[in-house]
């Protein structure tokens, strides 16, 4: 399969297109390795995870270059965010493993956490290495063996990761990678009778197909799917600070983050001021060649994504939302590469298509509200529930709103990233939680030994 650089639209690599037979071979290897790997000590597994972590850090430049080539991330962003945050998942999984209590005895019954078995892991292209380590690291820490299918659109960093795992001395068969498409390799993994659990991060469409394919074999399925996260600005928020931060959070990674706060929910009587603040920051964003150190946003990751974003910008205009900046077409000056214009709509009705559907591009909707109850209703008015933000100077008011929002994470006043905080969706954003102790526990079975004494 060809791998296309979204900045040039040129083929930069070819990968093997795996088949169901390749999945069988990978599962056989993972199954054969499971008994020995699951019986290793915490110290043994932690030492390997520490080596994987160190090798990711040591190879930051190579990994950043690969990510930038395969999905268009600006090189500075790939170096500062895509790679180090991916490494963090490995460090955190190792740290949590070392402190984890695998068994406890209550009333003579031992309750023991044991690795679930062979895990099929399916990942997307938007944060390619980060999504891989968020699954592989806790699975290995738990004592599971894995079959990974990275996105066919971003397989280069995944191959470098496979080399890292090998160089870290992971025993043969514990980690397996099969490249290929969702329908060929992903479905074969989901349906495989000898895989005990699937974890998929991707679109709702793929998540539902995986659950269907997995149903016959009654394996555990955890899904990390889409989002349409609200950023609620309470009336006392410091708008001069919160609006620029909110715009940059929505556009981070060219808006291709499942948790991007793409609906800014603002007091109606402050709308004009907020539009002006948002347009100023959006117009200052440098979109361009991802190889340049000055670039903030590169192109969208692939042609399908570019077309999707264009369709949604057209829908916003057709539905009567006010275009504050950006708009359809490529960024002026680029006739090649999937460069979309950072686009802000205002006066957006919460039921418009652009306010309901995940766009996965640099498109922000500003939605006015009249009362705080309205704001909460709007925040909860999509089928998603992955993430949310609340901005306020009065922390009590912010906390009260945070408890009313139906989402797996709520951030108050743009806090620093917490890699230990559980991450996952309410509603159609999925089920299960990744990161930290919750992420590790996804990969366990629970056994009760009654009469343990
Ligand atoms: P996608 O659903 O197209 O692909 C994700 C993965 O699933 C890929 O590896 C793909 O090959 C595979 N796949 C596709 N169809 C499949 C099938 N029928 N059976 C098995 N596997 C299949 O998603 P994408 O375009 O790569 O990523 C974007 C989506 O991912 C967005 O919706 C985004 O919100 C979501 N996402 C969610 C999270 C989260 O943690 N909740 C994080 C990042 C991205």
Question: Count the strands?
Answer: 20
- CATH fold group of the largest domain: Aldehyde Dehydrogenase, Chain A, domain 1
Ligand inventory reads: nicotinamide-adenine-dinucleotide
Give the overall shape, derived from the CA principal axes.
globular
Q: How many domains comprise the coordinates? A: 2
CATH homologous superfamily classification of the largest domain: Aldehyde Dehydrogenase, Chain A, domain 1
CATH top-level class of the largest domain: Alpha Beta
Strand order of the largest sheet: 12-13-14-11-10-16-17
Radius of gyration: 22 Å
How would you describe this protein?
The mean pLDDT is 98. Helix 4 (75-99) runs parallel beside helix 5 (128-142). The protein has 2 domains: 2-225 and 429-449, 3-Layer(aba) Sandwich (Aldehyde Dehydrogenase, Chain A, domain 1), CATH 3.40.605; 230-419, Aldehyde Dehydrogenase, Chain A, domain 2 (3-Layer(aba) Sandwich). The longest helix is centred in the first third of the chain and has 25 residues, at 75-99. The protein contains 15 helices and 20 strands. The protein is α/β, with parallel strands linked by helices. The protein is globular and about 65 Å long. The chain has a 7-stranded mixed beta sheet with strand order 12-13-14-11-10-16-17, sandwiched between helices. It has a 6-stranded mixed beta sheet with strand order 7-6-5-8-9-19, sandwiched between helices. Strands 3-4-20 form a 3-stranded antiparallel beta sheet, with no helix packed on it. Nicotinamide-adenine-dinucleotide is lined by residues 122-126, 131, 149, 151-152, 181-183, 186-187, 190, 200-203, 206, 209-210, 224-227, 258, 358, 360, 386, 425, 429-430.
């Amino acid at each position: 399969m060809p791998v296309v650089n979204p900045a040039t639209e040129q083929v930069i690599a070819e990968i093997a297109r795996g088949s169901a037979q390749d999945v069988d071979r990978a599962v056989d290897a993972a199954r054969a390795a499971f008994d020995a790997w699951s019986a290793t000590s915490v110290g043994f597994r932690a030492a390997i995870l520490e080596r994987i972590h160190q090798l990711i850090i040591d190879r930051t430049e190579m990994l950043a270059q690969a990510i930038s080539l395969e999905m268009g991330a600006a090189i500075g962003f790939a170096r500062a965010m895509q790679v180090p945050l991916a490494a963090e998942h490995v460090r955190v999984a190792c740290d949590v493993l070392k402190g984890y209590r695998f068994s406890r005895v209550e009333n003579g019954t031992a309750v023991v956490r044991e690795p679930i078995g062979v895990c099929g892991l399916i990942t997307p292209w938007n944060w390619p290495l980060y999504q891989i380590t968020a699954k592989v690291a806790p699975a290995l820490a738990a004592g599971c063996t894995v079959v990974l299918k990275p996105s066919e659109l971003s397989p280069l960093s995944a191959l470098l990761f496979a080399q890292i795992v090998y160089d870290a001395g992971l025993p043969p068969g514990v980690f397996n990678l099969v490249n290929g498409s969702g329908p060929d390799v992903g479905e074969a993994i989901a349906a495989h009778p000898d895989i005990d659990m699937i974890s998929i991060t991707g679109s709702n469409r793929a998540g539902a197909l995986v659950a269907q394919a997995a149903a016959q074999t009654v394996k555990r399925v955890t899904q990390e799917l889409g989002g349409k996260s609200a950023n609620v600005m309470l009336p006392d928020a410091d708008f001069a600070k919160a609006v620029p931060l909110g715009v940059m959070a929505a556009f981070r990674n060219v808006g291709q983050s499942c948790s991007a706060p793409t609906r800014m929910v603002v007091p109606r009587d402050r709308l004009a001021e907020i539009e002006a603040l948002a347009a100023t920051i959006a117009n200052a964003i440098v979109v361009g060649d991802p190889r340049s150190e000055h670039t903030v946003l590169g192109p969208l990751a692939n042609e399908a994504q570019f077309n999707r974003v264009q369709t949604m910008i057209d829908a916003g205009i057709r539905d009567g939302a006010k275009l504050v900046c950006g708009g359809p077409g490529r960024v002026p000056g680029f006739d090649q590469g999937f460069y979309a214009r950072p686009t802000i709509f205002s006066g957006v009705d919460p039921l418009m298509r652009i306010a309901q559907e995940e766009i996965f591009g640099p498109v922000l909707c500003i939605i006015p509200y009249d009362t705080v109850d309205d704001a909460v209703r709007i925040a909860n008015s999509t089928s998603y529930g992955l993430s949310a933000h609340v901005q306020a100077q009065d922390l009590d008011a912010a906390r009260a709103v945070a408890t009313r929002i139906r989402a797996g994470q709520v951030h108050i006043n743009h806090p620093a990233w917490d890699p230990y905080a559980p991450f996952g969706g309410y509603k159609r954003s999925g089920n299960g939680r990744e990161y930290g102790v919750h992420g590790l526990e996804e990969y366990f079975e629970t056994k009760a030994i009654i009469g343990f004494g």
